[in-house]
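Input.
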Amino acid sequence: MENIDPQHTESGAAPKPIEKDYESHKEDPGPAKPAVTEKDENGGGQALKWVLPLAVIIGLIIWFVMRK
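Output.
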């Protein structure tokens, strides 16, 4: 971890406000409004709730059958 790029360290400063005038802040814009306010109702977590337990159960079944 000696080669840490200094632009990727946390400064502890407050996050940038939602961008309202992109043209005037083109060099260093803040986040767009949808990026901040969008709801994550159908994200990957919903699928992982079902896929991971099934994968574990199938893996255990295969392991018990193959271990003999």
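Residues 41-67 form one domain.
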